[in-house]
Amino acid sequence: MCQITVLPSGLVFHEGKGTTLREVLVREGLLLDFPCGGRGLCGQCKIAIHPPTESGSRGRNPLPDAELQAGLRLACQTVVEGDCTISLPEGGEREVRWRAPSQQEETLLPVGAPLMRRVPLRLQAPSLEDQRADWERLREALEKAAWAQEGPRAQEGLGGRAGNGQERSCPTLEEVPVAALESFTELLRRNLWQAEAVLEGESLVCLSCSREERIYGFAIDLGTTTVDVSLHNLETGRQIGRRTLLNRQSAFGADVISRVQSFQADRRAVREAALDTIREACSLLLEEARIPPRQVVRSVVVGNPIMIHIFHDLNPLPLASAPYIPLVSGMIRRPATDFSFSFQGYGAVETLPLISAFVGADTVGVILALDLEHRAETALAIDIGTNGEIVLSRDGSLITTSTAAGPAFEGAQIRCGMRALEGAVTSVTIRTTGEVSVKTIGAGRPRGICGSGLISGVAELLEAGLLDATGRLKDPKQIDSSSLRQRMVQEEGQRAFLLCPEERILITQKDIRELQLAKAAVRTGIDMLLEETGIRAGQLQRLRLAGNFGAGLDVPKAIRLGLIPRLPVERVDVAGNAALRGAALALVSRDYRLRAGCVHRGCRFLELAGKPGFQMRFAEAMFF
Ligand code: FES
Question: The domain 370-407+515-621: what is its CATH number?
Fold first, then answer.
């Protein structure tokens, strides 16, 4: 066995010869990005290794000699040959701490009709004369108590008649896991056959000793890049805490297509990476709030269609090739034990429905959170990530589409790109005097540029006349200001603008092309939705930017680049992670849960690829 020491954490692992460092890092949950899924193509998984090894020096995209001499290697191409120490790049942290102020969303949700109800129970103690089984005793007590408490309302629930007049049954053993049954009856014996039952519909999800014991649930946004989780009191709707972690699945590639490919090779590893991230985030929240898992009785998950398929261990392959058909598109409800969610006692885990193969449960969450299907106005909501999902609502009727924006908005495939973490440049100012300043997350030393920083930087380059409308960086000879001229440099055979000379953070010509492709994809989607519905951009009463990327966006600069239509800025607002909020609403509220089903049935999907004029519009939208 070889000993591998990982810096800066100092963690030590033991591994047999021949394993790749990528496999070790993924298995141990140390997050390094593997954007090409470990195929040696992107050169992004660099680590430093001591002593240096021949292995990993020749990936399919070999590193420059200077980097090799400095001991840098591609983790995905380097195999363990003996004891070694590896240094992960600065910023390998897993938690996403930064949020724009708009994301300090209100923490009290409108519960309306709650999904959960409590029924106080007083059971007859067993005796030689009454030898009913514990479960029968509990079941009959539940039935009686529910009738006594709710009268006719119990018809919707326990032991009554459903709306269609058919007899409905009490909970059956199939609905209550045997392990739960054992813990419930232990509690009853301990508590002298008195308890407080918590029911979701007909399902008994929790038995507690007292009314004071609260019940909780998790809303989970399973994103391609991050997993955003919030913990809620299910009866009041209050948010107890929130955590955002980088999705461990990133080790299998930055985009959903590489996840689909990796799933074919090792479905268990790909699924478990996502489930592990969820488990970690939820457990951290419970620990912080000192809440025992048995008090968690419900979880609602949203995500794009591929992530939802992987979550349920369904092969997402049919989603990735024509005619793009999901295996299932409705709401799915399963017991927490199916996911080995040790942070949840009993009760269900639900995923919200999908709208199409490209528009998922996360968009349903956005629609619920922004009340798009209820408001009497014309509004556009955009959730930008590696895909851009766009929803147009006119007086409650909904039409949606999805565009492949690519990873540029998340800082991937950008020369100095990084995710929106501490040290990422979020905003750039270029003054007419030639001074350049940047703002970073955490106000510390710049480490790279995230998506909103790239938008801001490119908009400033345009305004300063350093970039033309086709997206070409100007020849330094055409630039009057000497200080700006000095910042125009050559980087790997292409022009680049030096944003932070000390840290050598630059925006290259290729970065600008990547941004143009991403913004053209989103803008084409917006324009074609508007055209399909006969609405002019000026008629939009509101434009809502959802998602982590939207939260950090400088709206006037996004308008300047043509990412979104030219509208008065007061009509544009930033909604934070609306997908997560939508999941939280469906977590606590019966109304919102029902509405999710209506959105699934009522929202129309517009397929862009087959539309005449798509290519032409896309080409036009490339211009600034
Ligand atoms: S080169 Fe290693 S992940 Fe792409």
Answer: 3.30.420.40
